[in-house]
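Notes from hallway chat w/ T.B., transcribed later so I don't forget. T.B. wanted the structure written out for a chain they're using in a teaching module, and asked if we could keep both sequence and structure tokens in one place. Agreed to drop them here.
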Amino acid sequence: MSHIFHSVNDLDISGDFAATGGPDDLGSLGFYHTERNTSGGNVHSFDSIDWEDLSLYTMPLSVEELQAINADTTFPQLRDPSMANLSSTSDTSGYVPPSRIPSPIENTRPDPLRDANSSTWAARNPTRSVIRARTPPPRLSDAQKASRKVKRDQKMETTKRLHDAVALYLDEQKLKIGSLSCTHNVTPKYINDIIGSHTKYRTTRKVQLTNALIHAKAKEMNTDQPVGSRYTLVELREMVANDPQMKGLTKDEKAGYIAALSEHREQNVTNVRGNNMAAARDVLLTTERVVKELDDLRVRTGTYATIFVVRGHINDTIQSSMHGTDNSEDFWEDVYDIPMADYLRQYEQWACTQNQNLNERDSLEAVRKQVRKMIVRGLIAVTGKKNITMNYSNYETAVVETYAVQLIGWPASIKFINPSNIGTVGDIRKLRDALKARTCYWAALTPVEVKAHTAELDVRRLAGEVVRKPRKKRSDAGGSRKHKALPATNRENKRPSKKARKMAASSSEAPKSVEFIVSSAEEEDDFEAK
């Protein structure tokens, strides 16, 4: 069976074949499967077509398209079927097909929005540096696999001997600690605390010069090396030890190497992931570490914790997750009558509708809102008053003197004003970062500090300084502000006051009594009469 698919040049403007437009031409061109009858003619059988044949639904590429693919060029522009034969029959210079009339929306839509790429987090943040994805190592040969297996077995045997030796040492140490506890009249736990005292809380170590030099040598030697051929850490250490240029460094040169490594580590933390798979894996591993830390914190301190992690865009492949220590999930159902999973779905829907990249999230208005909330939350926490508000104009008297609290660490380069009046993104971000890092924080003042502050204000007042900014005067100050009587025509349409509505509601809810109450004596007389 053979099938021929025709080009647009074989069709007229109405979509029929240019010859006659009938089925005979289809048969002559070979579209139908033909069968020869006994009289010697061709009978076209429509039912004999194999409709499951995939070639019916595919169009082979033309010679020009194949050449364009091989030459890695653009495809030739396809002709409109409605314009197939107009070029030979009439002048079409001024003709525009109705289906191809340009839309006014297409013409007015800006190119950045039309061509925007939102497939990945990195694409939605084009101004941010991207963490380079690791190139997968080459596949190992059978000989390499066998060699690695031998090394792995040897390492396991060495590790087992070490563990056995350590276990034997611990047994001997236990006997020795028991002997020392009896000799010095102390408990074994006291001796163990002296021997193995350490803390689980460690701060981040500073960048060491040795690591900075190895990092610089790695960038020099491994930048252009393919995967599998790069120098190992041991080889890089030997290169640094044997490099005369890295000996006898000045103080500025050492600081330069350390700053380069610090910047590299900072970029690895703050740069964006280059693709959705890397972003999803980063979220998964980080969430697992956070969950483990929360569970360990619950054991150490008995705290309850809940965490929600959702994606920020519909194109992200991040799997939304939630975690609650102990029975924290019962809180959402007991208090809000909504399962915790429903909150997760609503949170994910809200996050996806935001559709913001990092620059949009850190816009001037967004950061202003964050700063205002952080300042008010801190003020509420330090004073314990839920309905308190921040007064920036009269901060010295309305906040510090009245509530005995003070905002410490406000950046010196930023004027102390309402965050809504800070006009530059750099200043408001600097203030936000200071509040997050708790270098700018609320602190309670002692009675002595409050008295000293009040005395300072008195000295400033005596010097003629306006300490408390007066309230703005009303435009109708000095005049009568009584409500004028409404005309008789508007009294009926006047809305009742809040007090009147409340009184009407309370009276309507009161139980109604019957108009006549029959006494018990009258009830007995009626019963006897019956």
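Follow-up for T.B.: DSSP finds 21 helices and eight strands in the chain. Might be a good example for the class.
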